[in-house]
Amino acid sequence: MKMSNLYAPTLKEDPAEADLVSHRLLLRAGMIRKMASGIYSYLPLAWRSLKKIEEIVRDEMDAIGAQECLLPILTDAELWRLSGRWDAYGPELMRIVDRHQRQFALGPTHEETVTDLVKNELASYRQLPVSLYQIQTKFRDEMRPRFGLMRGREFIMKDAYSFSATQASLQECYEDMKAAYGRICERCGLAALPVAADSGQIGGDTSVEYMALADSGEASLVYCDSCGFAADDEAASTRVSVTEGPGDGALERVSTPGLASIAEVAAHFDIPENATRKSLALIDGGGVPVVAIVAGDRELNEIKAGHLFGDYHLMDEEELAATGLHKGFIGPVGLPRGVRLVADESLRESERWVCGANEVDFHLTGACPGRDFEVDEWADLVTVVAGDPCPVCGEELSGARGIEVSQVFQLGTKYSLPMGATFTDEAGRTQPMLMGCYGVGISRTLAAVVEQHHDEAGIIWPVSVAPYEVSIVLLDTKLQACVAAGDRLAFELSAGGIDVVLDDRAERPGVKFADNDLMGFPYQIIVGKRGIAAGTVEIKDRATGERVDVALDDASNYAVERIRRARGVRFA
Length: 572
Known about the structure:
This protein is an alpha+beta fold. The chain has 15 helices and 31 strands. The strands form eight sheets. Strands 3, 7, 8, 9, 10, 11, 12, 21 and 24 form a nine-stranded mixed sheet that branches. The protein has a five-stranded mixed sheet with strand order 16-14-15-17-20, with no helix packed on it. Helix 2 packs antiparallel against helix 6 and helix 12 (480-495) runs parallel beside helix 15.
């Protein structure tokens, strides 16, 4: 490919809309362009890298016996109603109505479609297990699309689905996929960590996601250096340490005029915020008023609360008044009739609570569960943070941020049971199939690679996913010897199986160097007047910045050898 013909319109300045490094660099390098909020066009360079990521994914899927197919983008609303997700998925599901007034969705995932596909075809345990996968554009109507390819309304994804007759078979499929996902991350050049995760809108009760570690990651995770435990903070659970309140344990009503915040109450009693109790009033998915209580220095985990309370919301001023609660002074003692009390599991053994008195300008000290009030349910409500004890070995957890690039789920019978996907077992009994689903964000992986591989000059592509592995930079396109040497190198490298781009543009050397660094090709072969006179070229390693002079006659072999070696590098 000659760069004079390449459609890659670069930008000199950082786009104002781009916050993340990947968004900024992919725009500047002429790899993507925004069409609308959360919707992007992939230009030729990005498309080449995406195709390489797809081929890595295909290679690993085929290696474990998964079979590629292609399912419709349009999914029938009736299938979603069968699974129960038509109403449960929420506004993120893109819904359309055709001219016959039939309802469809643009698939964000395809559990319903693939279950409907196989349910009349796989009738016996002898036909199981089966794993199917596809690589396809998906759709999700994000309220606030942001961060370029990280959170878009349209994205490319590989989704796979397994159907098994036994739990042991499902577990084997699940483990095979987990191992394959680890290899995919390695081959794409990603340092990624497998972490326990919440199953979200897809469902199921067992899930692991691969997080590409990056300070810009939108997800928080905790991990243990001692035993290897790792989890998304949405899913992690541990025994949180709490501090007792002041006093001898006797219940005391204390005047706290105007002290409605945790910080103010802690300062008033001269205790750490952890020794106070934070009460949050909400309405659960069934319309029942609830007070949820956590340690004062902790936050209610929205994901865990969603599992426990359904489609809940925090009470507004009118709802607080109607329920008989006072913002800033809510507590467990003397709650109005009909209010359900749920407390974090970490508080179960605590006997001296500092909490609201359910009376304006008053708090209680020494409030004791079981003596002064009854908790309707103890539950895991808080977000685990760095410094908490590891739930496995007890050592202190560390924290990091990550980009979710892939996730595996054990779905069990969540879809097969309501949709009637059954088989006949060895005893002749009808059983629902046990399912797993497994996703890789192809376009998100592209962005994650850039987040991990860049410098101030631009992208530094790993060889495995680089749009071109070598760029030949002609410094003088008017010098015939320079042009001839570039053409020769391009021919030899292509013959050696190397993806090569020839920068033959009539631009100043500084412009060419800046563009080639920005686009991030792993190796640059620089062909100039002085080198040609000496029979040499300069070869630059984009990742290390190392430059070496190599004889023109040896340059192709030199580059081919290093690229072939780099194709086998594992990064994780």
